[in-house]
Amino acid sequence: MKFKRVLAAFSALALAVSLAACGAPSSASTQETAAPAATAAPTATPAAETPETAEATGFRVAGLKGPTTMGLVNLVDDVDKGESDLDLDFTMYGAADEIVPLLVKGDLDAAAIPANLAATLYQKTNGAVEVAAINTLGVLYIVENSDAQYTGIADLKGKTILTTGKGTTPEYVLRYVLSENGLDPDKDVTIEYFSESTEVVAQMTARGEGTIAMLPQPFVTSALSQVEGLSVKFDMSEEWEKVAGSQLVTGVLVARKDAVEADPEAFDAFLSAYQASTEAANTDLEGTAALCESYGIVAKAALAQKALPECNIVFITGEEMRTALETYFQVLYDADPTSVGGQLPADDFYYGV
User: Fold this and answer.
1) Statement: the pTM of the whole predicted model exceeds 0.90
2) Where are the domains of the chain?
């Protein structure tokens, strides 16, 4: 297997809004975006690299540049070094928009993607995909470059919050948590959306003291080293659990049912290897961080090593996965049915349950 990278430019905000309207997330809306730059200034997105033209062999898997691929990188490296028997073809993308059509057309067998995107894909493909594991829990944090002290989310009334994620999980999480704390997201705060987290970090530097933003890991770790006086004010996973009574789920592994049914033993072997890879990501921080840098997932190993413990990389399957996702999807559905494709997934969405 060769590790292939496809880092396409992010869609314009207008496209993001139009996609959100039909329940499909935009590239600007995913919690996992391009790896943080070494400086706070926005950087140009790398030009798209065309994947190798040779026909892919084996189980075709995609991931996004961020925590989900950080959890996969040990497996990717094992395959590259010939230390795994898996026949795996892995490609890393910069935006979820690129993965969706490939899964729909059958050009991919599985992908690590945002949780609500998995639900919309299930509807879009008439049940042709299923979710096999939760691979990432909450990675969102509210930060501010000031020494201000907050007693709760309600203290954000009258504030401006910079973020990415218009039209999908980050927006839904923020709006839900604000609403459940007595704030009207459309009146009591001003939410400004940007296409990339690097833009948000740059804005925090440009606007100076008192700028508030909601960022995902590993961008939080990067920003803490770049923006003077920056500190974490709220862990959105904790805030979500307070009001929703459930875990905040970020990423999942989905697979096409036809690919799984074609070789269920091979798929189960892949899941076992993936689980071992996530365990290594949580225990061998130094080794995993070095791989994150060498595979271009995060700019620097030192940054990856600091960020890994905060990325909530997990591997949850079976009934525990189903319970967490059903509760999470219900909250999103109640807030906006289009966020999960218009209706909740049926029982056959959950693999191995």
Assistant:
1) no
2) 4-137+249-349, 140-244
